[in-house]
């Protein structure tokens, strides 16, 4: 028996569409993001879930509520599942960050684990809080299926940790809005990635 984690990235926001760094900024789902969440809810409505967990930011929490509604289950919001805190970079595009923080951005791309974003976090801090939160979920639900809705950076760090990756290369893992990944844990130390970045429930134009 094992715990199966259905790991979901939230639906699209306007800032996603504009390629702006969001981080802890509490940006709502766009109409497209709402439809992406509904499409995934239709895909998952026949599954049996023990619980639903989510980041406490509304783009993730509202995605999770849409997924949970057909199952009649509440969503437990966890601050630890938030995206990386991008500090002074939040609301900016990559080009705007390059223009204002060129040295810091170059250092962060090279060593995100230990480079502190101005006013924000290091990736190592994100890894610590996300893996601790998900490990607690796995230990709380040693059998059955659980949905965890969070953010692209969180999913990359968690999958990278399970696979034993160099997390300075975590950006090589592509994670689309409203995608589904699945991790199975017979124990925390024996996590297996069985599905990654699956968007087959989305119409081509909703990717």
Structural commentary:
This is Alpha-ribazole phosphatase. Its EC number is 3.1.3.73. GO terms for molecular function: alpha-ribazole phosphatase activity. This protein is an alpha/beta fold. The protein has one domain: Phosphoglycerate mutase-like (Rossmann fold). It has 7 helices and 6 strands. Strands 3-2-4-1-5-6 form a 6-stranded mixed beta sheet, sandwiched between helices. Helix 3 links the parallel strand 2 and strand 3. The longest helix is centred in the middle third of the chain and has 18 residues. The mean pLDDT is 96.
Keyword list:
207 residues; alpha/beta; Rossmann fold; 6-stranded mixed β-sheet; 7 helices; alpha-ribazole phosphatase activity; Alpha-ribazole phosphatase; PGM_Phosphatase; isomerase
Q: What can be said about this structure in brief?
A:
The protein is of the alpha/beta class.
